[in-house]
Each structure stands twice: as structure tokens, then as C-alpha cells.
Write a structure and sequence with these properties.
This protein is an alpha/beta fold and about 210 residues long. The chain is about 30% helix and about 30% strand. The chain folds into two domains: about 170 residues, Rossmann fold (3-Layer(aba) Sandwich); about 30 residues, no CATH class.
Length: about 210
């Protein structure tokens, strides 16, 4: 399987540029929602930006939602929401929400989350999505809700052309020995013990 390994600083810098784009568009959120775990890194950066440039006089809430869709690389299941740190029941008409995630792939998770918020009566123009990577899979029927803002867009016409984007900010799933050596141990050999432990438990040798 083809993979792209994306360094933390690339995501950070792209997210800062995206934050300014959102601000220049005249959209300042009242609540930034991040689906855990993928949205946390992007969410942290956008939250820091809007905390500093917000002139509304009211804080920009930073909230998380635990939602599960992916179970592994290219494996998925139905979306399940385990909980919100800021319950959508508290939202009022006029609140502006920004959902942010690392990637919009199938779109299943974000569509599920936004639908649950839009069902509260908030207009779509007040509920927006910002992602680092926006995949357009032309061979699939698209979900109705798509990102409003993105750092990178990938148009993929065939399943065999799809690839996995590995975010070095947090992901450890699905790494081969060669990938661990190349992207982690070559720069920091002190991580050897860490990955030895991961490999031990991954192979069931507890």
C-alpha cells in the first residue's frame, strides 16, 4: 500500500495558513469541535489562532467529540458517538461552529457529526468544516456535506490509486519495520526501546 508520511511542522504551518484563510473569509467560530483523535492536532492550532485574533469579547470554546469510524487502515464501520465535551444541546441559533479534522476521506464521520448538529436547527452556513487533507474519491457516491476549507485536495479516480496519509504528529498504526527505522529511529535511536515494546505487544507476546 502506498503511504505518504506527513511531518508535524508541515501540518502545523499549513493549519496556520488555513486559519488565516478562514479568518479572512469573515468566519470566526464560537465553538471549535474536534473529532478525537485525528482532529486534535489541527484543532489545537486553530484554537490557538482564534484565541489570539478573536475580537468578539467572548471566548472561543474548544471542544472534543469521541467518534469512531475507522478501525484500521482502509477498514471502517458505522459511526458511533461516545460523547461530546460540549453537548450540542447547549448550542443556540447564531452560534458559529467549526469542525476540524486531519482528513476528509469517505466523509462518513464528519457527515454524521454535522448532521447531528444541523438537526438542532443551526443553518449550514454557520457550521463549517476545515481539514488538512480533502480526498475526493470519484469512484464512490459522495456524502452530501463536504469541507468548506482544506489545506490540500486529492482527486482519486480509482481505488488502486488511493493511498494512506500517515500523520507523524500522532499515528503509530500499521507501521512496517522499514517505516519505523526510516521515520523514527534514524533521527532518534533512543526510541528503539519504545518501538520494541510496541512490537512485542502488537505481536501478542505479553
Amino acid at each position: 500500500m502506498n503511504k505518504e508520511f506527513l511531518p508535524c511542522d508541515v501540518v502545523r504551518n499549513n493549519a496556520l495558513k488555513l486559519a488565516k484563510q478562514i479568518f479572512d473569509d469573515g468566519f470566526v467560530p464560537d465553538v471549535i469541535y474536534v473529532p478525537l483523535r485525528g482532529g486534535a492536532y489541527m484543532g489545537n492550532i486553530l484554537s490557538e489562532f482564534f484565541k489570539l485574533v478573536n475580537k468578539k469579547g467572548s471566548p472561543v470554546f474548544y471542544a472534543a467529540v469521541v467518534a469512531r469510524s475507522y478501525t484500521g487502515i482502509h477498514e471502517n464501520e458505522g459511526v458511533k458517538i461516545d460523547g461530546w465535551t460540549y453537548n450540542p444541546e447547549y448550542l443556540r441559533r447564531g452560534d458559529k461552529l467549526l469542525f476540524t479534522d486531519d482528513i476528509f476521506d469517505s466523509g462518513r464521520t464528519l457527515n454524521h457529526l454535522l448532521s447531528s448538529v444541523l438537526d438542532k436547527g443551526l443553518p449550514r452556513e454557520d457550521v463549517r468544516i476545515a481539514v488538512h487533507d480533502y480526498k475526493i474519491l470519484t469512484y464512490r457516491e459522495p456524502f452530501p456535506i463536504i469541507p468548506d476549507y482544506w489545506c490540500r485536495k486529492h482527486v482519486i479516480d480509482k481505488p488502486q490509486d488511493n493511498y494512506w496519509i500517515h500523520y507523524l504528529s500522532h499515528e503509530l498504526e500499521g507501521l512496517t519495520e522499514k517505516e519505523i527505522d526510516e521515520h523514527y529511529l534514524s533521527a532518534n535511536p533512543e526510541l528503539t526501546d519504545v518501538f520494541d515494546l510496541i512490537k512485542k505487544y502488537r505481536h501478542g507476546n505479553k
